[in-house]
Amino acid sequence: MLISDRPLLGWGDAEYFEGMAQFSEAGRLDPATSNYWHSHSDVLDAWARRGAFGMLVLLAIYLLPVWLFREGLRARDPERRALATCGLLLPVGFAGFGLTYTFMAYSVGMAAYTGWFCVIWGLYSSLPPDTAYLDPSQ
């Protein structure tokens, strides 16, 4: 309901609580739901608080590692493939778990995602260039 009222710009952090309280007072929400400070979904929370642009930025944060590690998934070097797989599983895991809980609303959630991305990317990018890739037809 919050998203439908302000789909482009969102409510912001402070107004999110006010919006939830207004819906509760109007009888559109159970009053107990206004006690929750996030929506228990990363995508919904980003969209409600920061609007469509904020939701798209969150999706871009999830898709960046997929883009960066895509070539490594076909590498002949097993270390490169393993790190590329880790780099792919990081956003998949966070996005999957983010369907039922808002990890990115917490600074520790953002720090964990960013920290692990930096570790995996640092290890991956420090490998010597691999010009041999697996043939997908085999």
TrEMBL record:
Q: Which residues cross the membrane?
A: 51-69, 81-99, 105-124
Q: Which keywords accompany this UniProt record?
A: Ligase, Membrane, Transmembrane, Transmembrane helix
The UniProt GO MF terms for this protein read: ligase activity
Top-rank lineage group of the source organism: Bacteria
PANTHER family, alphabetized = O-ANTIGEN LIGASE, TEICHURONIC ACID BIOSYNTHESIS PROTEIN TUAE
Specify the protein name: O-antigen ligase
